[in-house]
Design goal:
double-stranded DNA binding; 607 residues; cytoplasm; Endonuclease, Chain A; seven-stranded mixed sheet; globular; exonuclease activity; 19% helix; 16% strand; DNA damage; eight-stranded mixed sheet; disordered N terminus; alpha+beta; 3'-tyrosyl-DNA phosphodiesterase activity
Length: 607
């Protein structure tokens, strides 16, 4: 659909009409079956979002940058469109229709293609990334880490058990404490008997190949939220594998999704739980910043143990069972029993989930942002209430927040994030700064993947136009601390740092983006919480790690040679975050970017 305004012309996907409450990456897309006529080679072989389909299309059929006579690594200020001045974004960087651009591509040769890569990457960065498709990427990180390295990661030096995924194309020392999915499924973690994979976007063939050969025929349950054509597509993928079964999560409220990302791994030696932020597709484990929490190996309880046996001080066991029970599915009964039979007492994190429904009374505090509010009131220190400790939220997609900040962000949601265990009166909300971290157009353009990285940052034009006020809260993505400034974030994190950003009162890693669908929204004069989607994360509180000061110190470098104390928390991006400058724009996936090339010498024309 072609639209025209004061800022030029642009195209948007007619199937991506935004709803009031759902974040853009959560809107179910039509199945790739419906795109068969467009050519299967250019489409992913699994259900996914419209934004990701656009990224697939542009990887398969890139639109080369047309040299307009300015340096390729700097967008020309004089050619940028500053419509909506002061809002921190613009609709389009081009006056020309993207269709016209595609026609011109064949007539223009980009002669200096090799020089389009940023200086901070190795000289062969562009050539490697141009040649490396997903198959090559899989070969690079397909072999699990060295045995001793993986063993050390799991059993020493990381009391938080919080990891990042490996990233191809960064300095190797920044991957020394990171994991690929093949590491997680390695026999080093246990002798697998069966597993369950909870996720949103799933490539079954790729997933099976991530298991070691000796585990590929073990029972595998896939928990998903697909319906109709997308469900048929998912089931069709699994036909060659007799060991795979499915559990379809019930999604009775419109625009809800099954966004949770979790692995349950049953071994001969015990049980392990993995809660993470990556879809089960190759791209999510290649050149993105993703987070993983890996539980200890939970031993089996002796026969005859009571139902309350094996509980942790954080009530992780009963909360995980409650989360699984919320699916109301016979397929998960076996996994509830498995968890019940194991000792989870060594868990130090709190489980924080969302499940679809409308909740009243005490049930209101079981899920979503009211669950976070309850945990912070019961388990966090009063230290953050004594001065203006800010809030940081970092995410990869954004839902509709309403006409202004009072509608949700700076009312009920902020009330939950500023909750503390303080007995006194907390600071007024207006005294608590909110820093929202979301990539700029230049963050995406200069990334390892180039513009296609924006396929997993599906903030749409339709949503952005409704909430220009929100962009004044935005801060750039920068992750020099972990070597991942050019690995676009699909991780979602929330935290409460001190005013000098040297300490944090708590840290949350979760699947939940910045949306009411994920976190819930109050209804009926605050007596009811409505949640659309399934989400899952883990909350780190200092008290659960024996720190009586009420805060974690922030680790200064996530590096193999870091000398920080072991109790310093590894925040994976730079603090304090840097606010958008006057020329920075949030990445919006469904408009073209043609004024400057990405690291592969390409433009972004999404349709």
């Amino acid at each position: 659909m072609l639209q025209e305004g004061a800022h030029g012309k642009w195209t948007v996907s007619s199937s991506d009409e935004s709803t009031e409450e759902v974040s853009d990456n959560e809107k179910p897309s039509t199945s790739s079956l419906s795109h068969a006529a467009q050519g299967r080679a250019s489409m992913p072989q699994y259900p996914c979002s419209e934004a990701r389909k656009a990224a697939h299309k542009r990887k398969a059929s890139p639109v080369k940058f047309i040299d307009k006579g300015f340096p390729p690594e700097r967008q020309p200020v004089e050619k940028q469109r500053h419509g909506q001045e002061g809002s921190g974004w613009c609709l389009s960087s081009s006056d020309e229709e993207p269709e016209d651009k595609e026609k011109q591509v064949h007539k223009v040769t980009v002669k200096e293609e090799k020089n389009n890569s940023p200086e901070e990457h190795p000289p062969d960065f562009h050539q490697k990334n141009e040649l490396l498709g997903n198959q090559k990427a899989e070969e690079w990180c397909g072999a699990p880490s060295e045995t001793q390295d993986t063993w050390d990661l799991l059993n020493g030096g990381n009391p938080f058990r919080f990891f990042l995924t490996k990233v191809r194309g960064i300095e190797q020392s920044y991957n020394s404490g990171a994991l690929h999915i093949k590491d997680i499924l390695s026999p080093l973690f246990g002798t697998l008997l069966s597993s369950a994979q909870f996720n949103y976007c799933i490539d079954v063939e790729w997933l099976v190949k991530q298991y070691p050969q000796e585990f590929r025929k073990k029972p595998l349950l896939i928990v998903h939220g697909e319906k109709r054509e997308s469900k048929a597509e998912l089931l069709a993928q699994a036909r060659p594998y007799e060991n795979i079964s499915f559990c379809q999560a019930k999604l009775d409220i419109a625009f809800g999704t099954h966004h949770t990302k979790m692995m349950l791994l049953l071994y001969e030696e015990g049980l392990r739980v993995v809660i993470h932020t990556s879809n089960l597709i190759s791209e999510d484990w290649h050149q993105k910043t993703q987070g993983i929490w890996i539980s200890p190996l939970y031993p089996r309880l002796p026969q005859g143990a009571t139902d309350s046996a094996g509980e942790s001080e954080t009530n992780f066991k009963s909360d995980l069972i409650s989360y699984l029970a919320a699916y109301n599915s016979p397929a998960l009964k076996e996994w509830i029993d498995n968890i019940q039979e194991h000792d989870l007492s060594e868990t130090r994190v709190y489980l924080l989930g969302s499940t679809p429904g409308r909740y009243q009374g005490i049930d209101k505090e079981k899920w979503g942002h009211l669950r976070l509010r309850k945990l912070l009131r019961e388990g966090s220190s009063s230290v953050a209430a004594q001065e203006s400790w800010p809030i940081v939220g970092q995410f990869s997609s954004i839902g509709s927040m309403g006409a202004d900040e009072s509608k949700w962000l700076c009312s009920e949601f902020q009330d939950s994030l500023v909750a503390t265990g303080a007995s006194g009166t907390a600071l007024p909300k207006c005294a608590v700064p909110i820093h929202l971290v979301y990539p700029t157009v230049d963050n995406v353009r200069q990334s390892l993947e180039g513009y296609p990285a924006g396929g997993s940052l599906p903030y749409s034009l339709q949503t952005a136009q409704k909430q220009l006020w929100l962009h004044s809260y935005f801060h750039k993505w920068s992750a020099e601390v972990s070597g991942r400034s050019h690995a676009m974030p699909h991780i979602k994190t929330y935290m409460r740092p001190s005013p000098d950003f040297q300490k944090i009162a708590w840290f949350l890693v979760t699947s939940a983006n910045l949306s009411k669908a994920a976190w819930g929204a109050l209804e009926k004069n605050g007596t009811q919480l409505m949640i659309r989607s399934y989400e899952l994360g883990v909350l780190f509180l200092p008290s659960a790690f024996g720190l009586d000061k009420g805060y974690f110190h922030v680790k200064s470098k996530l590096h193999s040679e870091s000398k920080d104390p072991v109790t310093s928390f590894p925040v994976p991006y730079d603090l304090p975050p840097e606010q958008y400058g006057s020329k920075d724009r949030p990445w919006i996936w469904n408009i073209p970017y043609t004024n400057a090339p990405d690291t592969h010498g390409n433009m972004w024309v999404p349709s």
